[in-house]
Structure formats: C-alpha cells, structure tokens
C-alpha cells in the first residue's frame, strides 16, 4: 500500500512484480534482511522526474509520521498549521540525519513569523532560549519545533487566527515560493472591463484567481527575462496603474494604493532580474548563504579548536620544559651553593698558604742577600779565571795549528790512495781486455794457431809484467793505507786535544769562541769520499803511470 501510494503521489508507474521479486526470498515481507530502503531507492525514487505535487507528497509523509510523533499536549495551532511548520522544518533543516534545525534557522523562522504577525522581535528572550538550547543539544527536531511554535512562547498576546495566518504566509513564501500575493484589478483583453482578482507572484509566473481560496484559477502571466514592468498614468477613472509587458501579451493592472503599486512593481522587477541572472528565489538563495556561512563558521571554529589544542599541547610542553628548567635551576643553585662553600674554604686555605709563602719569602730574601755577598767574592775568582782562560786560549791556538797540519797530511795520503785505486782499476780493465782477445785468438784457424801462440806468449809475458806492476801498486796502496792510519791517529789525537780545550772553554762560561780551520781549495771526489790530493799531484801521477806502461810494452 505504501509503495502504491508513493508511486501515485510521485507520478511513477507502480510495478508490483518488482516488489514481489525484491522480497521473494523472505516470507516476512518489508521487514526482511534486504530492507525496504533499497527497493524504495531503486524502483521508486530513481524514477522520479520532478513533475509531482510536493505539497501532496509532504502531506502523505506527514500522515505516516504525525500520529506517532506529534505531541499529545494541547497546542495553540491546528493540525494543518503543525503540518506547515513540519514542511518548513524539512526545508530549513540540515542535510544530515537525524534531521535537526539549528538555532540560527530557528531564529530566522521565528523572526519571519513575528514579522508576519506584526509584532516586535524579542531578541533578548531568544538569546536566553538559545543559550539554554546550546547547553543541551545542537538543535531541535521537527516535533520539538512544532511544540515551540505551538506553545506561544514567542507569540504571546496573539490569537490562534493571527498565528495561523503568519504560519500560512511563511509557508507560502518558503515552500510554495510565493513572493507576493494580494487583490488587484485587472483589465480584460476582450471586454476591456476591470475585474478584481487574487494575484500570486512566484519566481517565474503570476497566477490570478477569483478569490484567495485559490479554487477558481482564471489565468497565468508567464515571466521570463524579456518581460518588463512599468508604471502608467491614471486613466479611465482608474488609479495606481502599471503595465506588465511579455512577448505575446501585455497586462494592465490597478493596485489599491500607491504603496501597493510600488511594492508590486518592485517585486515583479526583482523576479524578472532574477530570471535574467538565472538566480534562485531570494529565500532559497538566503538559505544557501546562511548554510555556507554556518559551514564557514564551523570550519573556522574547528580550525580554532585545532589551533587551541595545538596551543594547549605546546603550552603543556612549555610547562614541562619550564618544570625541567626549574629543576635544573634548583640543581644549579645547589651546586652553586656547594661551589661557593668550597670557594670560601679554598680562599681560607689560600690565605694560610700565602702567609706561609710570605714568611718563606722573607727567609729567601735573607738568603739572597747572603748569596750576593758570596757572589761578590766569586766575582774576584771569576776575573782570575778569565785570565787563566786567556792563557788557555793561546795554548788552544797552538793545538788547532797542530790539528790543521794533521789534516793536510791526511789529504795528501787520500790523494795518493785515490791515484793508486785508479791505476788498479785501469790495469784490471786492460787485463780483462787481453783476456778477451786471447779467447778470440783461440777460436782462429789451425794455420794461424802457431802465430797466435807466439803472440800469446808475448802477451802472457806482458801480462806477467802487468801483474808484477799490479802487485807493486798493491804494496804501495797498503803503504798508503798505513800512512793514512798514522795520519788518522794523529788527527784523532789532535781532535781529542781540541775537544778537551773546547770543554774547558765551555766550562769557563763560553767567553772564548774556538776558531776551526776551514777548506781553502776545492776537493776532488773519489769512490771513498773527498780526495786527499790536488789536481796537480794527480796529473803528475798519471804521467808517471803512462811512462811505466810504455816501457812495459
């Protein structure tokens, strides 16, 4: 039955087969596990085109829920007025379940009602009510709103008829989109006579009826962005005239007075301007703006709460940090007091130590005075020692001269030894050369062997002579080494003497600087180090060796 009635009200074809198919697995029907909402969404609500009477649809929903939820206590409003308040609640409520109307929308509705009743708005009274409401809940349900309006709390002194008229006016504006309504005179198109009609202005149409009960509708004036309205001068005994121009027709209308005329002209022109801009009706646009403002305020409040939580967390962290710092300061203060105590104790100890040091310094000063007297006597001894050092200096010069002569002898022996070594090297090279030639001669033919044998004998004799010369050179080298050892011993003796004199001079506080012999001529370098002979001696030795070599050949 419910599905059939919904399809009838919403102008949707009813399909009983789909209903039976949806619940075929369960004998309990609408209370099955699949539920009624999936069927309602799929087979009824998805097929709605929008060409249905919303008031009749609301009336059906009201019939389903009013008996169960409507308060049993007596109200100042009728059931019809309660229905209208319920429909207004559905329009103004938030888009989430369970549906509630927030205090801002309650204030908007009550202001509309009091304005329609012609009484002043009691802001202070509503503020007290709002404070009491916010402490307990976020808003009111539909039935609580009906109780609030029906209790007369904000319409004291008004009779039931006035309250009912105010509810009806607000219902017409918010639900039926009635922007303005009232009696005016309209000039006929055929008879050109003037007849009184009840005009109802909506966002895209002006309908006119015989009376305000809206039972006998006489026609419509379709509005669009091309329509316009303009005032007309009085004529034919009619006053407060204005003209509504549409594409196909024009309508002459007479208001009851100038105020009504101006109100209707302004209302119609505002409606045309909204149609041009494609904007919704003013009350719907205002509702959307209020909703966006609430969402913005809610987002700002949530952001503020988040920031407050962050600040609270940061404050708690700071408090913990401050507590830690306080404990650290207390510990530092305790350490500072301990260190101050130690410092005072150390200061006392230092004062005692300084007193002892002062006494000790006095004793040292006395000793220094005694030492000064002793130094004076030592100075005389020092002068005597200087004179002795001068005498020792003369003896040191003589020792240095002996050392220089010993070095010259060493150089001569070194030069002689180097020459002998060079001669020995040359002889060895020549012997190796002869030995190679002898090996080559052995490889000659048998015919040349006798001649080569003779030459070999000659060369062997020459080799024997060279060997004798080499032995002679070896003897001379040994003699030179013996001479070098003797010179070296002399040099070591002279160096020891020099060293003893150096130690004596250093012992006598270094007043005399030793003068050592230096190198005057450039030295030749041999395989054993600097040569012990000059270039002239080397040349003379080479000429002697070459002469001996020529004689042996």
TrEMBL record:
PH domain ranges (all copies): 177-273
Location(s) in or outside the cell: Cell membrane; Cell projection, Lamellipodium; Cytoplasm; Nucleus
One of the record's GO molecular function terms: DNA binding
Pfam assignment, any one: EF-hand_SWAP70_N
Coiled coil feature spans: 283-504
Entry keyword annotation includes Coiled coil: yes
Lineage top rank: taxon: Eukaryota
Keywords associated with the record: Cell membrane, Cell projection, Coiled coil, Cytoplasm, DNA-binding, Membrane, Nucleus, Phosphoprotein
Signal peptide coordinates: none
SUPFAM superfamilies on file: PH domain-like
Subunit structure, interactors included: The SWAP complex consists of NPM1, NCL, PARP1 and SWAP70.
Its job: Phosphatidylinositol 3,4,5-trisphosphate-dependent guanine nucleotide exchange factor (GEF) which, independently of RAS, transduces signals from tyrosine kinase receptors to RAC. It also mediates signaling of membrane ruffling. Regulates the actin cytoskeleton as an effector or adapter protein in response to agonist stimulated phosphatidylinositol (3,4)-bisphosphate production and cell protrusion.
PANTHER family registered for this protein in UniProt: SWAP-70 RECOMBINASE, SWITCH-ASSOCIATED PROTEIN 70
Protein name: Switch-associated protein 70
Source organism (scientific name): Aegotheles bennettii
Lineage: Eukaryota, Metazoa, Chordata, Craniata, Vertebrata
Gene name per UniProt: Swap70
């Amino acid at each position: 039955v419910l599905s059939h009635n919904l399809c009838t009200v919403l102008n949707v074809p009813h399909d009983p087969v789909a209903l039976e198919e949806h619940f075929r697995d369960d004998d309990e029907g609408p209370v099955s596990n699949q539920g009624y909402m999936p069927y309602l969404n799929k087979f009824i609500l998805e097929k709605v085109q929008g060409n249905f009477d919303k008031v009749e649809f609301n009336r059906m929903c009201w019939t389903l829920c009013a008996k169960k939820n409507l308060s049993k206590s007596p109200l100042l409003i009728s059931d019809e007025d309660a229905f209208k308040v319920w429909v207004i609640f559905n329009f103004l409520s938030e888009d989430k379940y369970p549906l509630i109307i927030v205090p801002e929308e309650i204030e908007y509705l009550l202001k509309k009602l009091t304005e329609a009743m012609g009484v002043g708005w009691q802001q202070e009274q509503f503020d007290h009510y709002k404070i009491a409401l916010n402490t307990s809940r976020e808003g009111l349900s539909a039935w609580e709103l009906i109780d609030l309006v029906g209790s007369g709390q904000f319409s004291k002194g008004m009779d039931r008829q006035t309250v009912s008229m105010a509810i009806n006016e607000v219902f017409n504006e918010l639900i039926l989109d009635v922007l303005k309504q009232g009696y005016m005179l309209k000039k006929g198109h055929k008879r050109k006579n003037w007849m009184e009609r009840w005009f109802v202005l909506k966002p895209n149409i002006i309908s006119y009826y015989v009376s305000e009960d809206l039972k006998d509708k006489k026609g419509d004036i379709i509005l669009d962005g091309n329509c316009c309205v303009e005032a007309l001068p009085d004529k034919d005994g009619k006053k407060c005239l204005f003209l509504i121009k549409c594409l196909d027709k024009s309508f002459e209308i007479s208001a009851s007075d100038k105020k009504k005329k101006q109100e209707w002209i302004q209302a119609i022109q505002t409606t045309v301007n909204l149609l041009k801009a494609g904007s919704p009706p003013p009350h719907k646009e205002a509702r959307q703006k209020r909703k966006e403002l609430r969402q913005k305020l809610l987002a700002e409040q949530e952001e503020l709460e988040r920031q407050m939580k962050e600040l609270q967390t940061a404050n708690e962290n700071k408090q913990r940090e401050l507590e830690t710092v306080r404990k650290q300061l207390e510990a530092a203060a305790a350490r500072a007091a301990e260190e101050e105590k130690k410092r005072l104790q150390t200061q006392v100890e230092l004062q005692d130590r300084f007193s002892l040091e002062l006494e000790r310094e006095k004793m040292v000063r006395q000793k220094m005075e005694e030492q000064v007297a002793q130094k004076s006597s030592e100075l005389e001894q020092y002068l005597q020692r200087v004179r002795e050092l001068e005498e020792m200096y003369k003896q040191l010069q003589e020792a240095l001269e002996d050392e220089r002569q010993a070095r010259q002898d060493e150089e001569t022996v070194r030069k002689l030894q180097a020459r002998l070594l060079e001669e020995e090297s040359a002889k060895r090279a020549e012997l190796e050369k002869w030995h190679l030639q002898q090996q080559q001669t052995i490889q000659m033919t048998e015919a040349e062997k006798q001649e080569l044998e003779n030459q070999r004998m000659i060369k062997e004799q020459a080799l024997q002579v060279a060997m004798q010369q080499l032995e002679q050179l070896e003897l001379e080298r040994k003699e030179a080494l013996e001479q070098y050892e003797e010179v070296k011993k002399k040099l070591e003796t002279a160096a020891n003497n020099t060293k003893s004199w150096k130690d004596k001079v250093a012992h006598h506080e270094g007043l005399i600087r030793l003068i050592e012999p230096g190198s005057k001529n450039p030295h030749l370098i041999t395989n054993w180090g600097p040569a012990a002979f000059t270039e002239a001696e080397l040349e003379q030795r080479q000429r002697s060796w070459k002469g001996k070599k020529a004689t042996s050949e």
